[in-house]
Structure formats: C-alpha cells, structure tokens
Amino acid sequence: MEGTVKWFNQQKGYGFIAGSDGKEYFVHHSSLAEGTFIRDNDEVSFEAGEGERGPVARNVELVKKSSEKEE
User: Fold this and answer.
1) Is 20 helix (H, G, I), strand (E, B) or coil?
2) Could you tell me which of 67, 21, 12 has the C-alpha nearest to residue 57?
3) Which residues make Cβ contacts (< 8 Å) with residue 33, sequence separation at least 6?
4) Burial track 3-42 (b if 16+ CB lie within 10 A, e otherwise)
5) How far is CA 60 from the centre of its chain?
6) Which residues constitute the domain of residue 11?
7) Contact, 2 vs 22, CB < 8 A?
8) What pLDDT, on a 0 to 100 scale, did the predictor assign at position 35?
9) How far apart are alpha carbons 63 and 42 in whole angstroms?
10) Is residue 69's pLDDT more than 70?
11) For a tag site, which of 20, 40, 47, 53 has the least CB within 10 Å?
12) How confident is the model over 13-60, as pLDDT tens digits?
C-alpha cells in the first residue's frame, strides 16, 4: 500500500501515515527498513496490519522524500 507520512517524531520514534485507503496507520521506527528515515509528507509504501490499538504500518519503505515532490 502507498501512503504519506502525516507526522513522525524522530526522538520518540513513532508517528502516523495516511494510507491511500483513507485510514491512518501507526508507524514505529522498528517497522522501517534498516537505514531508512522518514519525515513529514514523505511518500512511503508499507504493509497494512492490525495492532492492539488499530491499524499499523509494517515494512515501511521510503518512495519519495517530501523535498523531492513538485510544488
């Protein structure tokens, strides 16, 4: 699935992704591919899953940095 990072707190290591299906997914730093860093508004691909508190993103990979998007 594709999505956009709504926000991600680097210090706390978690945030949320707005999925292409209209749902919000919790993302934890442990779900990022090794060496991957995400920031607000980055485009990502991920596997949708269900956690204890709702939808979660797993195996998150960066597709396009927000700084590379056309304005």
Assistant:
1) coil
2) 21
3) 59, 60, 61, 62
4) bbbeebeeeeeebbbebeeeeebbbebebbeeeeebeebb
5) 6
6) 2-68
7) no
8) 86
9) 8
10) no
11) 53
12) 999 999 999 999 999 999 998 888 999 999 999 999 999 999 999 999
pLDDT of residue 70: 60
Tokens of 36: 């991957």
pLDDT at 67: 83
Residue 59: Cβ within 10 Å count? 11
CATH number at residue 37: 2.40.50.140
For the chain, state the CA radius of gyration.
Answer: 11
* Strand partners of residue 25: 17
Strand partners, 50: 55
Number of domains forming the structure of the chain: 1
- Residue found under tokens 């680097």: 10
Higher pLDDT, 12 or 33: 12
